[in-house]
Amino acid sequence: MKNWKRMLLSLTVSVGLLASAVPAMAAPQETSVKVNDQAVQYATGAPILEKGTTLVPLRTTLDAMDVKLTTATDDTITAVVDGRTITLKSKLTRINGVTYAPIRIVGDAAGYEVRWDSATRTVLLVSKGGDTETVQTGGRGFMWEVEKNGNTVYLVGSMHVADESFYPLRPEFEEAFAEADYLGVEVDISTATDEQQKMVLDLGTYQDGTTLKDHISSETYASLGKLLKENGIEPDAFDTFKPWVVEITLGGLKSADGGYEASEGVDLYFIQKAVQRKIPVIELESYESQLGMFNNFSKELQEETLKATIDNFDVIDTSLNQMAEMWKTGDDEQLLELTNSFSDNEEYNKAMLVDRNIGMADKIDGYLKNGKGEEYFIVVGAAHYLGEHGIVKLLEDKGYTVERK
Fold first, then answer.
1. Of 105, 217, 377, 393, which sees the most CB atoms within 10 A?
2. pTM listed for this prediction
3. How far is the C-alpha of 232 from the C-alpha of 300, rounded, in Å?
4. Three-state DSSP class for residue 184
5. Is pLDDT larger for residue 218 or for residue 117?
6. Highest mean pLDDT pick, 131-135, 305-309, 361-365
7. What pLDDT score does 137 carry?
């Protein structure tokens, strides 16, 4: 069925929004860390995943990398690497008396390449070699450039769930970001609050005493129960949730099984770097608008998309592999084909792409016209850029020249 691909778009939009509000479908797996193939032993604390970021006990991890910690404040780390002092900006977290820091920022600053082994859920810190000729990048990806009156906007197409094979990004991404005054994203999933989690529960659960089986057909409910049972979950585990929440959660389970996680997404990668550089992160949308969009889908559309996800559950990871390959090759033709495939349902396409693209293009237009000589690095889902209603076409219609990079 063509319409099951909608789940992939739904998943990549909102996996970060739902991650902390929906009960886990399986017991969480522990994450480990290796430095040059040597496992790091943590006497106190352990690596954790928080709001899409892998955090590690700072002092123990630095010791394993042969880095001497000098000072650590709330947002600054000073350390000595190979006799030279480095300072990096990163928000630190205290948990049960242990100081935690984002592994990617710490590893990068200390001169290590940060990789992810999805099969063993291990963060691999590998000393970078001196031969730059042999460095492999994660792929071409999608990036466009627009200029107006001294202002520059880089448009980057993200996959919101990814794995370590996407990194390192090609130099053009890093060079453009290094000069940016602002990072723009759909929503900043690193700043989820209790209020936002409550919003997910208020919108995504039934408040009138009914349950999921009162709102979908008996056939779809039975198929869901069978799928959950096959995955070691109680058949009624999601009875309090609406179909759109269940659909996205199923997709999140399968993507994680395939090694694709929000913690490795392209947008979160740059959010972490923006925190390190202390540049503003601006949101082109909001939690309210994205969650409200899903919640306003018709009853028929919600069940149709949930049923398609259940029926195609076993091939979701294969399709994510294909999307990852499309991203790495930067294949515009395949991206356009994917984008156009969502137009089979007018209600879905209008809400997920058409209306949102107009709103984002209007904001980008404002950035280009503000006359402040600034550079914006915009990272939103790749599916938003191409096609008749894509951001690229909308900006061209406003008179801009958009150059593929």
1. 377
2. 0.77
3. 28
4. strand
5. 218
6. 361-365
7. 63
DSSP string, 234-299: -TTTTTTB-HHHHHHHHHHHHHHHTT-BGGG-HHHHHHHHHHHHT--EEESS-HHHHHHHHHTS-H
DSSP result, 40-104: PP-SS---EEETTEEEEEHHHHHHHTT-EEEEE-SSEEEEEETTEEEEEE---EEETTEEEEEHH
Helix axes 332-341, 316-329, angle to 10 degrees: 140
Cβ neighbours of 333 (radius 10 Å)? 9
Long-range Cβ contacts of 237-241 (<8 Å, 24+ apart) = 237/23, 237/25, 238/212, 239/211, 239/212, 239/213, 240/205, 240/206, 240/211, 240/212, 241/22, 241/204, 241/205, 241/206, 241/212
One-letter amino acid at 187 equals V
Torsion sign, CA atoms 319, 287, 332, 341: positive
The residues near 254 (Cβ < 8 Å, ≥ 6 apart) are: 313, 316, 317, 320
pLDDT tens-digit series, residues 262-319: 778 899 899 989 988 889 999 999 888 988 999 999 999 999 999 989 998 888 878 8
Q: Are 385 and 392 in contact (CB under 8 A)?
A: yes
Give the per-residue pLDDT at 10.
58
Residue 324: which residues within 8 A CB-CB, separation 6 or more? 159, 162, 163, 165, 166, 260
Tokens 């550079």 sit on residue: 375
- Omega before residue 168 within 30° of 0, cis: yes
Tokens of 65: 């990398």
